[in-house]
Amino acid sequence: GSPPSLSQLHRHALYRYIAWKRLDVPLGYGAATVDWGRGEPEGADLGSMDAVEFIQERRRSWGVRIWLSVDETWRCDFALVNVLSRRPWESLTVERDGDMNWVVNGRRRRSLHGCVELDIAATPLTNTLAIRQLGLKVGEEAMINVAWVDVPSLRVTPVQQGYRRIGPIQGSDG
């Protein structure tokens, strides 16, 4: 699919805007819109997530735009990542092909077989997908394999990541 138009976005009742400040770089900010579709966030057909990040490190800076298509189980089905830096604009597509197979820029990547989810280094937004899928209770932890996208290089590699639930979700009783 392609990113929705503004008129399409405003028709959805559960459309959210999110912003954050990066703590791992000297200067970094991000913002996202999340379209939960017509249902409730829990178990709904999520639809899409659209994020931007602006990052400045010691001697380099870049911007990244990320568009994700997400299914009702919080799984990323498709991602488009665009990086703008001193080099020309670079793009990457990553698509789920079956349960745990991935296609990167149109080519199936056998090295990514078994990766449960996609994680894009430039944004905490993609960690939300794994967190929601795992459904951990407070104090529980889990390790999963992810297809990790390095930004700004756009290299995709399999990585094992750990998640631990340290408390209830803010604004909920869980």
Structural features, described:
- The chain is mainly β and 174 residues long.
- Helices cover 8% and strands 45% of the residues.
- The protein contains 2 helices and 11 strands, in the order αβββββββββαββ.
- The strands form 2 sheets. The chain has an 8-stranded antiparallel beta sheet.
- The longest helix has 10 residues, at 125-134.
- It starts with 5 loop residues before the first helix and ends in a 10-residue tail after the last strand.
- Mean pLDDT is 82; it is low at 38-44.
Give a quick set of tags describing it.
174 residues; mainly beta; 8-stranded antiparallel sheet; 3-stranded mixed sheet; 2 helices; 45% strand
Sum this structure up briefly.
By secondary structure, this protein is mainly beta. It is built from 2 helices and 11 strands, in the order αβββββββββαββ.
Beta fraction = over 45%
| Mean pLDDT rating | 82
> Total strand count, please?
11
- Overall radius of gyration: 16 Å
Unreliable residue stretches: 38-44
Topology as a string of helices (H) and strands (E): HEEEEEEEEEHEE
For this entry, what is the oligomeric state of its chains?
single chain
Shape: globular
Strand order of the largest sheet: 1-2-3-4-5-6-7-8
Q: What does the main sheet amount to?
A: 8 strands, antiparallel
Task: Give the terminus-to-terminus CA distance.
Answer: 33 Å
Give the structural class: mainly beta
Helix content: under 10%
Number of helices: 2
